[in-house]
Amino acid sequence: LIMDIVVHLARRNSNPLKKLLTNSNEAIVALSLKVLSMLNQPENGEIFLNMTRHDSENIRKQALTHLLACEGNHLDVCISLIDDSSDAVRWLALKHLGQTRNSRAEKLLTTYLENKDAREENRSHILDCYRTLGQCGNDECLGFLEKTLFPRNWVRKLGIGNTIHQEGALHALTALNPEKSGPMLSKASRSLVPSVRTACKKVLAGGK
Q1: At the N or C end, where does the chain have fewer CB atoms within 10 A?
Q2: 204 and 189 in contact (C-beta within 8 Å)?
């Protein structure tokens, strides 16, 4: 009942509610976002977008959840948030990017991964990004995945150094069209590079 009254008053004038978004009390900010999401106002998208930069992890997560419920294309917002310090925010962003086959999401993730350092502390996140690429990608990312899996660099060819990106490429391939990805996976399973063969066996067996 109280929430209904708050929503009713906010429909008449939402400015006092918007001012509460700068309040130092996180609970008040969270409640204000919830009420705003129930008003369906045209400016909500911009408000929620701004709040995805909030210091609080919980507020950023809630703001992104509300933003993704608004009409519009939010792929660029999501790609900007996949390096967020919050696991929950990164998960929401990747989930949205991978929900359908989409050439824009495919391009954004490919560009991101091409420039992502393969540090061991980023291992889980990088593999999640490749899995998402497999969910949203079509044929355009195959060239990138082939280059990643079978590098021309001799150090990489010998399986020396970090192979996170190669393992990630295999995860992406298993989620793509088998007619296109099958030959590449078959080649990886017969690779002369032990690390590639091992990674391929692990991924095909459902390992993480």
Answers
A1: N
A2: yes
Instruction: Confirm if 35 and 23 have CB atoms less than 8 A apart.
Output: no
Which two tokens mark 163? Answer: 């192979």
Give residue 38's identity as a one-letter amino acid code. M
Q: Per residue in 23-61, is it b (16+ CB within 10 Å) or e — as a string?
A: eeeeeebbbbbebbbeeeeeebbebbbebbebeeeebbb
Q: At 115, is the secondary structure helix, strand, or coil?
A: coil
Question: Higher model confidence: residue 105 or residue 122?
Answer: 105
Residue 94, both tokens: 């990747």
Whether the predicted pLDDT of 207 surpasses 70: no
Distance CA 77, CA 135 (A): 18
Summarize the confidence of residues 147-170 as an average pLDDT: 75
